[in-house]
Structures are given as structure tokens and as C-alpha cells.
Amino acid sequence: MIFFKLAHLGKIALVVSLSALGGCETMPTAWKAETAAIDETTGEGVYYPKVSSVETPDIRFGRMAGFGPQERQFFVDQVNLAASTPGRTFPIVAQAVGENNETLVFTYLGDGSMTPYLSRGILARLTSITRAAPAIAEMGLSSEFDVYNMAAVLGFARVTVTDGRHFAHQADLRQS
């Protein structure tokens, strides 16, 4: 059962095949003094600045049973490994952060500042990659499966897109 779950997790990770991904487990001490309010439960103030905008997307798929912090970290690790394939260019770093790794953060590494439009573009590209992946069809998921639903299935409570400097857009995936 665990092999089955991890095999599917690896397939889902390939869906979001990004480039040059990586992460840092701890924040350097010198940075701590520069950050404003730190929220350890979400990663705000540690991995991204204060959230600029929030949305609550429609989540159509429920959380898969048995997915916890280790599985979410494994997913991000697999995305990072898959994304190291030469020839892929998508200047994003993905991380699972916060309490129980429940925040999926995509940090834009490109030049200039992030805008809401660039944020939407990044999420649209990730959705296109998600929808086009053979693994999604193999798992019996519909074409309505987007980046938010993928994250919710894996147990992420929120997705944040940031430039790591001044801008952070967050989607709250928790359904009431």
C-alpha cells in the first residue's frame, strides 16, 4: 500500500515538473532580524513576505487518506528532482513549509517584482502542466484537476506564490 501511494505521489510530482527547484530547511539567523511578523504555522515571514492577496478556490477533490507531512515533503522532493532535468526553464522554487508542511510555496526567481498577473500566469502554467499529465488520466482524475486541487488532494492547506521580496498571493484550500 505504501509503495502504491508513493508511486502515485511520484507520478503527481512529475505533473508539476518545474526547473531549478530547491529549498532551505532553516532561515539564516541574519535574516530573522529583517523579517516582520513570523507565522511558523504557515511560513509567512520566514519563506515569503506578508500575504498581499488571498483567494478561496473551489476544491472539487478531497484529501487522499494517509498523506501527512512526510508525504508532502516527498512530493516536493520529487518535483525538485524531476525539475532538475536539463532544458527545462521555469524560474520557480517549490517548498513544503509551515506546520505539518501544509503550505506549498512557489517562489519566483525571475527578474523584477512579482505582480498579481505574473502570479496568475504561473498558476495557469502549473494548471496546464497538471491537466496535460498522463498520470492524472491514469489515476482517473478529470480535466478539471488543477494546481489547487492537486495540492488539496495531497493535504496542503494553502498554496502561496511569491517573489520572496515584496509580494505573496495565497490560495486557502481549506473548505468549510
Word description of this protein:
The chain is α/β, with parallel strands linked by helices and 176 residues long. The protein has one domain. It has six helices and five strands. Helix 1 crosses helix 3 (69-83). The longest helix has 17 residues, at 116-132. Residues 13-33 have low confidence and may be disordered. It comes from Aquisalinus flavus. This is Lipoprotein. Residues 1-22 form the signal peptide. Keywords: Signal.
What is the element layout, followed by pairings?
Layout: H1 2-15, H2 29-32, E1 53-55, H3 69-83, E2 92-97, E3 103-108, H4 116-132, H5 134-138, H6 147-153, E4 158-162, E5 168-172
Parallel strand pairs: 1-5, 3-4
Antiparallel strand pairs: 2-3, 4-5
Question: Which residues sit in consecutive blocks of at least 5 with pLDDT less than 50?
Answer: 13-33
Name the shape in a single word.
globular
The string of secondary-structure elements, in order, is HHEHEEHHHEE
Largest sheet, in brief, is: 5 strands, mixed
Radius of gyration: 15 Å
For the record, give the distance between the C-alpha atoms at the N and C termini, rounded to a whole number.
Answer: 30 Å
Mean pLDDT, to the nearest integer, reads: 76
Number of strands: 5
